[in-house]
Write a structure and sequence with these properties.
Length: about 475
């Protein structure tokens, strides 16, 4: 029986990890035996669900446990021969993604300060309803399969939008996807094999990091800076590991909100050209940016850049329509992968998205949304600074602020307590390449207008010893 010491200086997560690991090593928990479920363990030991999630996550990462979907957590069987090779083949990070889906994105929590979407009343609901009525009245045949690359008029509209940003794109270079997540997944499956070293932003886009771990990639974290990247560290990683792919989010990055300067983009392209690296640019927040900026894709003209976008962030998360734009040869390969996993395109959703963005009020909606986010950034930044938080960057646009407090060495402890107060925070380890403990947290400014959030933070920070 594991005995926890709630008043010990050792964090509860560490006590659980060390205790269970010791029992496994000693043979008290035999290979193949099932552990209590997350909620059962939390109830039995009077700790929060998030504490158990973090502990199980670390035990999986250390190789002590394995998660089996719909079954639970089991002590890993350690093969005597070929164990290292089998472990390398096994996708890492699936368990973390499962936790994120089941635990972290609990939409029932009243205050979703750490989430990754916009409030419903900030989205283009009126435009979506109008487009839906128009589509319902349309006599177009919606009973068959769509074009494998996606609804042609929407692809043309996307190509036209890129032309306005100094990027020449033919509609055949546009592949429509079920949100940006499918676009990223296609790029991962096309470019990455198990064991490959892959460059990623650190901290970076959580869903992408989980996908790469599942693919079996070795993640090389490129440290983010308020101006973009630690270019010295980037070059050192390239020379040392010779990666072939860099997945990055230059604009309004999640979780930091930072924006890479043109000088940084040029240097990244130089290094990519010198070392034969494909760049996958995740530009899903382009419609939230009030500034017209150069991108990796526009500077490179899609020679070695794949760029990805989405309408789900600004129209509705339930409308899964994204896109991928690349060199024609690459698009053909990715379209084949799309057909293997999904057969064709969801033309109904793509027609709906096309109707939304081509009706007259779309641009007005985007301007209103950008203005609203800009005001929220200013307000939330002031409130967090007033509580003693350090802000990584202040972009004044997009959804996110990345912040830490000197009294909080590990954001998980604060996040655990927040759940008990009906608040979702964004603990920073979920966004790190190595899932290491960190004081940093992601704040979504669109969900940080509730005074209860600041009252909770102020109350917790008045007793900093509880985080030691």
């Amino acid at each position: 029986m594991l005995r926890l010491q709630p008043h010990s200086a050792v964090p509860l997560v560490s006590q659980i990890v060390d205790g269970l690991a010791a029992q496994i090593e000693a043979g008290a928990l035999i290979a193949g035996s099932k552990l209590p479920s997350i909620r059962q363990f939390a109830q039995n030991h009077q700790v929060s669900v998030f504490t158990v999630v973090e502990a199980y996550d670390r035990l999986v990462a250390q190789g002590h446990l394995v998660s089996r979907p719909h079954s639970g957590f089991f002590v890993r069987r350690r093969a005597e021969a070929g164990g290292a090779q089998a472990s390398a083949r096994r996708p890492q990070g699936f368990d973390t993604m499962w936790y994120l889906r089941k635990i972290f994105e609990n939409r029932h929590l009243a205050i979703k300060a750490g989430c990754g979407w916009l409030p419903g009343d900030w989205l283009f609901e009126d435009g979506l309803r109008r487009a839906l009525r128009h589509l319902a009245a349309d006599e177009a045949d919606l009973g068959g399969y769509g074009d494998p690359k996606g609804y042609p008029p929407l692809r043309q509209t996307i190509a036209d939008a890129f032309a306005e940003k100094d990027l020449a794109v033919h509609p055949e270079q546009v592949l429509l996807t079920q949100g940006s997540s499918q676009a990223l997944d296609l790029a991962v499956r096309r470019l990455v094999h198990a064991g490959d070293a892959v460059l990623v932003d650190d901290p970076g886009y959580a869903n992408l990091l989980f996908s790469l771990r599942f693919q079996g990639a070795t993640l090389l974290g490129v440290p983010r800076t308020p101006q973009g990247y630690d270019l010295v560290a980037l070059e050192k990683l390239i020379v040392t590991h010779q990666p072939k792919v860099f997945f990055t989010q230059p604009r309004l990055q999640s979780p930091t909100g930072s924006v890479a300067t043109p000088a940084h983009l040029h240097r990244v392209l130089q290094l990519a050209d010198q070392h034969g690296i494909t760049l996958v640019e995740n530009d899903i927040y382009v419609n939230l940016d009030p500034v017209l900026r150069p991108t990796l894709a526009s500077l490179d003209q899609l020679n070695r850049v794949i760029t990805i976008g989405s309408y789900s962030k600004t129209i509705s998360p339930n409308m899964r329509v994204g896109y991928l734009v690349a060199h024609p040869d690459m698009v053909e390969d990715l379209a084949q992968l799309k057909m293997i996993s999904g057969l064709t395109s969801a033309e109904f959703s793509e027609r709906l998205a096309h109707g939304v963005i081509t009706e007259g009020r779309w641009r007005k909606h985007l301007k209103s949304l950008r203005d609203r986010l800009g005001e929220a950034h200013q307000t939330v930044a002031e409130r967090l600074r007033g509580l003693g938080f350090e802000l990584f960057a202040e972009p004044g646009a997009g959804m996110f602020l990345w912040a830490r407090h000197p009294a909080v060495p590990d954001a998980v402890a604060l996040s655990n307590r927040a759940v008990e107060h009906d608040i979702m925070l964004g603990p920073g380890h979920l966004f790190l390449a190595d899932l290491a403990p960190t004081p940093w947290m992601r704040f979504n400014v669109a969900f940080c207008g509730d005074e209860r959030l600041y009252a909770f933070l102020a109350g917790q920070l008045q007793a900093p010893a509880q985080f030691d």
